[in-house]
Specification:
about 130 residues, mainly beta, seven-stranded mixed beta sheet, about 0% helix, globular
Length: about 130
């Protein structure tokens, strides 16, 4: 019953923008930090960004810092990843994941092993 569903992926020209959504069903995200991860063919899955339960704490990979913005709307049980100035290197399957944490923890981590629930992924393609 617990499910995360990513949406918003697609083909975008270099320099373009895209907003990914991660919607939860079957549970509330209030007690979960949320991470966005991506995996390109032949590469390891890497952390992109994460956000704490309240949204006060965020982290970004160096490769996306300044271009991507993570946000959450707990009332909608949804987390977003706004991606601007997209590059071909951003091409990957993007996954959102939920990590059950104490709400007193005002931060988040970008380690795949920490996350409990994973979405199925959405493809983002930025052609060269």
């Amino acid at each position: 019953q617990l499910q995360l569903v990513e949406s918003g992926g697609g083909l975008v020209q270099p320099g373009g923008s895209l907003r990914l959504s991660c919607a939860a069903s079957g549970f509330t995200l209030d007690y979960y930090a949320i991470g966005w991860f991506r995996q390109a063919p032949g590469k390891e899955r890497e952390g992109v960004s994460c956000i704490s339960t309240s949204g006060v704490g965020t982290n970004y990979a160096d490769s996306v810092k300044g271009r991507f913005t993570i946000s959450r709307d707990n009332a909608k049980n949804t987390v977003y990843l706004q991606m601007n100035s997209l590059k071909p290197d951003d091409t990957a399957v993007y996954y959102c994941a939920a990590h059950l944490v104490n709400t007193a923890f005002k931060s988040c981590v970008l380690r795949t092993t920490e996350y409990d629930y994973w979405g199925q992924g959405t493809q983002v393609t930025v052609p060269s």
